[in-house]
From TrEMBL:
It comes from the Bacteria. GO terms for biological process: cell adhesion involved in single-species biofilm formation; negative regulation of bacterial-type flagellum-dependent cell motility. CDD domains: GGDEF (cd01949). GO terms for cellular component: plasma membrane. It catalyses: 2 GTP = 3',3'-c-di-GMP + 2 diphosphate. SMART domains: GGDEF. It comes from Rhodoferax saidenbachensis. This is diguanylate cyclase. InterPro entries: Diguanylate_Cyclase, GGDEF_dom, Nucleotide_cyclase, Rev_trsase/Diguanyl_cyclase. Gene3D superfamilies: 3.30.70.270. GO terms for molecular function: diguanylate cyclase activity.
Length: 364
């Protein structure tokens, strides 16, 4: 082996080793793209993920890397869903996902450059899938494709390891551990929002009248299943578990693909959602409450939920926002269950007292 070859091999192994240094999923896409840029030296590398809202599947470009290091990073939580390109059958990207294989698009078809499209994960064309696109002057030679394939192999292993640690084992929803990270991320990646959060600006109680679609807010809802102990006591723990799995499914079908749904533990769930208006956030939660009420759970029949919601604003750390939503849940439980209560409205109407200060500022 020549010195040159061993230096190259060492470099490759070093790149892979640093990929496994990551302790969080964030940054993994960028590291993969940088690694491929370094080894293959293409014109550009892009990563796009599939987002879904019920049966509407769209591409969200999350990363674009060129040798001059100009990059673009986007988090699906902030995407304007309807402005994204739809996933269309028959396109090279779709074929790549469908076949789970690399697809080469010649310069004549794609414009000035050759494109090599590879599936980011294995599992076909559905939500949570994605592609990596490599633009090059010439078709990628087989030995380079083999390198990309092996790097993707390591990437996928790392990715599924992170995914496993972020998931609730029973329902497959995100777990409590991943909540805090997303909570802060959602604030950081929305400059207007973060500016007011960092300054500790109190939420505007007229928010439902003043907000516009371009000025969206984040809302947190806590969901607690009503009389769940009775389900366990009457039908057994296994049926109780099945009910929790079905509730998670109803939640996934009710909320939009870019809303985040968590199981905090037991029969408690949390939703982190985006909406410009207090009333539309309430209406979405009301739709979920109704879907629950109308669903007939096998053996058990009807199960209802009590929901408390609150805006994320005014410098509240996650535990304070959760605490306020929890107070609204408590109110719902004490006043008949099977209802959605807004912390803001309850405080405004004098139905509960603000016992939590927001970064030293009294809200109302
Ligand atoms: N099957 C199952 N049950 C669970 C799980 N985690 C917690 N539970 C049960 O959830 C029940 C929660 O009961 P409580 O906190 O008394 O509340 P509840 O019966 O829903 O009553 P309200 O909240 O007042 O409407 C307990 O019986 C727990 O054992 C789980 O993973 N699986």
């Amino acid at each position: 082996m020549t010195d040159h070859t061993s230096v190259k091999n060492f470099h490759l192994i070093d790149q892979l080793a640093t990929l496994t240094d990551h302790r969080e999923r964030d940054g993994l896409n960028m590291h993969l793209a940088q690694m491929l840029m370094d080894v293959i030296k293409p014109l550009s590398i892009s990563v796009s993920l599939v987002m879904s809202d019920r049966n509407d599947y769209r591409w969200i470009p999350v990363l674009h890397l060129r040798p001059d290091a100009s990059i673009q990073l986007r988090d699906p939580l902030h995407a304007d869903f309807l402005s994204l390109d739809q996933v269309r059958e028959g396109t090279p990207r779709f074929r790549c996902l469908e076949m789970n294989l690399p697809v080469a698009v010649d310069a004549a078809e794609s414009g000035a450059t050759h494109l090599t499209i590879l599936p980011l994960f294995v599992g076909g064309a559905k939500a949570d899938s994605g592609i990596i696109e490599i633009a090059s002057s010439n078709r990628l030679p087989l030995h380079e494709l083999a390198i990309v394939d092996r790097m993707l192999h390591v990437y996928r292993n790392m990715h599924s390891m992170f995914l496993y640690s972020e998931r609730d084992v029973l329902t497959g929803l995100a777990n409590r551990k991943s909540f805090e990270e997303t909570f802060y991320k959602s604030l950081h990646e929305n400059p207007n929002f973060y500016a007011s959060w960092a300054k500790g600006i109190a939420p505007d109680k007229n928010i439902d009248r003043r907000s516009s679609e371009t000025n969206e807010h984040f809302w947190l809802a806590m969901v607690d299943v009503d009389h769940f102990k009775q389900v366990n006591d009457k039908y057994g723990h296994q049926i109780g578990d099945e009910v929790l799995i079905l509730i998670a499914r109803i939640m996934k079908n009710t909320f939009r693909g870019y809303d985040r749904v968590y199981r905090f533990g037991g029969e408690e769930f949390v939703i982190l959602m985006r909406s410009a208006w207090h009333d539309t956030a309430m209406a979405t939660l009301e739709r979920f409450r109704k879907n629950m009420e109308e669903y007939l759970f096998p053996q058990v029949g009807c199960i209802t939920v009590s929901i408390g919601m609150n805006i994320i604003n005014g410098g509240d750390p996650p535990d304070v926002v959760c605490n306020k939503a929890d107070q609204a849940v408590y109110y719902a439980k004490r006043h008949g269950r099977n209802q959605v209560c807004s912390y803001m409205s309850l405080v405004e109407n004098g139905l509960i007292e603000t016992d939590v200060k927001d970064g030293g500022i009294e809200l109302f």
